Amino acid sequence: MNGLKTSVLAIGAALGFASFGTEAAAQDCTTRIGAVLPTSVDWGKPIAATAQYAVDIANETGGVAGCQIEMVLRDTQVDPKVGVDAAKALVDLDGVQLLLGAVSSGVSMPILTSVTVPAGVMQMSCCSSSTAFTALSEDGKTNGLFYRTFATSGVQAAVGAMVAQEKGYESVAVFYKNDDWGQDIGGLVARDLEALGINVTAQIAINDAQASYRAEVTEALQTQPQAIYMALYPDEGTQVVREWISLGGTQNMIAANALKSEEFKENVGAQFLGSFIGTDTASPRTESADAFVAAYTERFDGPPSGPGLANSYDATMIALMAMHAAGEGATGADIAAKIGAVTDPNGTPVTADAAGFAQAKEVLDGGETVSYQGATGNVQFDANGDVSAPAVMWTFGESGIDEMKYISLTEVNDFMASMK
Amino acid sequence: MIGIISYLVFFATVASILSIAVLGLNLQWGNTGLFNGGVVAFFGAGAYGTLILGSAPQDGLLGGFGLPYLLALFGGMVIAGIVAWIVGLLTLRLRHDYLAIATFGVAVAFENLVRNAAIFGGAQGIRGFERPLRDVFGSGLAYNALFFVFVLILLIATYLFLERLIASPFGRLLRAIREDETAAQSLGKSPSRVRLTAFIAGSVIMGLAGGLYATFYAFISPQDVLPILTFQIWAMLIVGGAGNNKGAVMGTFLIWAAWTASGWALSRFAPLDVQLYTGSIQFVLIGFVIVGMLMWRPQGLFPEKLVVSQSAKTGR
């Protein structure tokens, strides 16, 4: 279908949707939404495919506000210039009022400040974790147009501190990956540990792709912590742990979700990971989350195992439901204003599949609100467009990754509030 | 229609900003033969300098001096110049590939400095910059058009300045040093001082581009100063034609247009199943353009005009 289109038709469609749509034409109209995602990187492709999957589901139920949805996907190349240009082209040339993306905070941020906020377009990110968005929103500079379905690093940091408390560690050294994610989570976990009265002996940045981390590891070792916390990716994590253990460091280890990898376990050796506890934000224990996993597995011949997939799915679904609630010809601000109606905890619960989407449309058409039960749970945004999430603690077991403990959303929220 | 105009203004602004940086590199490489492999360091110094000097105070960040915008932009250029002066003193005795490697190292060091120093915003970068005159012109097309005019004036000013500079005796001296340093020295010139001057002047121009870039996005982070930017700027100069200022500007517009238009066209016309691979296809296409250019027209689209002497020249 895409191949047949001429540019004349395309421009006509874009103009048509903007203002001249009529009831009679509603059946065959097309509404464009934009997506700027790093499709030139391995892990970016499935995120984009998942967003497209959610769009397909919406179209299956007859589309949004009477129109079929076409997602125009642009690659960011993880380059801020390229991502911003793509976003600007989507907003200006394709007339999108809803933009999904980006993944890296360093790309999402300039898109937000120089494209979507000035143009009044709603931006929904699946995967940007930086706390800078919260701060920008608190400064009143997002105009309520920014939402994200990726829990801020706060949740994992809090649960990491919770592990240390439960295990009774009195001193912890923190290793963090030296990027925005790592700096964020490293700083937060240190703050949370201190809040719980646990001594943070060192906070050490780990740069990518170094041949050896002996200097960093030695520095931490000198402070003699009872445990270490790691916000690292598998490559650096493997090397840091190897050097840590070979120099006689403790095997009491806590780690963020990035180390949840079989490769890491095999490369380090399971015998050294006996007291290793990982944390992760979790899918909630609801039917809708299981249904998502089942539906995804059927569609893509494998479970959703990459980063950000459930988040990308929910981001797209919620945004499309809000778009439906806002009605035909809605602007970005209209759509953003309806997010609350889709994620109202007192609304009618709807599942994250085609049946749920159809039900949501019906309820929203009646002027009522729904509570979207998504792949990442019963999603609720706070005033800054941030979400919280349930969490798990996990360990490396004999045959894979074993869940140790599930911490519900309420428990996470209570625990985080108790540290304030 | 408004959308197309709005996008074109946006595109032209980014391309003009990059053109200024390419003009800076052209002074260094095209005219003086200095292989600067660390363009992003000077671009970044201007960008960070402008935001630090011009933004409102923020917790834990250096700066927040809230200077008037033009002063902040000028300050960013001065900072880029100071960085270039220090780097130049240390590295300009190096030639060709050695200079390239040393300056590349400086750029990587710069990126690591801003990524690690919390006072520069760390990996999160510096946000919350209030673009100048925004409350007067709003934030829509009118503002973008105004900013484009501002950038365009600076681009033209830079272009005219460089055209005059290279037509002057100093410009001849630069080319003399590029072609044969010993010969220039034998005529009583001081190549090391002239090389340093050209290096600083080019870097200040790059700093101006960086300052405008950060203003336009109201944000700067270490992700903006990755080595890829240096390569993009080099590709623009090589395609346009090193040693020719017109070529530098044309090359920038051409490469940046190819970069963005290919992404747009693929997203629009490629069949649905290859949509996911458009990013990779785009890299291949851009690679082809650059390789093809180097194979069939290595002197660039607008080759340098060689002038034997000032009096033999028949108008520009």
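qc> Residues 123 and 223 of chain B are 8 Å apart (CA to CA).
qc> done
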